[in-house]
Give the backbone structure.
Amino acid sequence: QTVVTQEPSLSVSPGGTVTLTCDLSSGSVSVGYYPTWYQQTPGQAPRTLIQNTNTRSSGVPDRFSGSIVGNKAALTITGAQADDEGDYYCVLYMGSGISVFGGGTKLTV
Amino acid sequence: EVQVVESGGGLVRPGGSLRLSCAASGFIVTSNYITWVRQAPGKGLEWVSVIYRGGNTYYADSVKGRFTLSRDISKNTVYLQMNSLRPEDTAVYYCATHYPPVDWGQGTLVTVSS
């Protein structure tokens, strides 16, 4: 069974930069997995930040960026703000109609 | 504006059934993917199923054979029929447009308990 792994928790100082990663148990993440990133705050539905590796969703500040770093998908927050605190999830498309979410990263600012 | 709204959640006994609805506005359901994702209390997101524009459906192994997706074009709504429900199906169920999901609804809570 394919497992998608994220850092369980990370912290960043206000104004700092942090990179969250999304790893695959069975190989390297590439653009063909259409990595997508979400932010979720308590009691709220997920909010889509980055689609298809590096496309920011409408209204998402440009301090959020997506990329492939080494063999992982990455979400970088540059100039972190207090309201960036929350849970972050990635999802990878595995093919044949199947997707798998990572376990999520709890980000503290 | 593209929007989806879930409904139909509630309390159901183990082994029971429930049908969730995902009503779409701002687009026609046959023109887009509709994805279902769930989140158990205090847990992460779990992909559940998706219906493609052409009508093909796909399911996570955890729900395959128990959950079924369908859509009613006249109501512009997608339905998730959930049978043989188990306590571990307890979660907030979200529907969303696109695949991977992009525009999310606010979710509907399903509780499976005796």
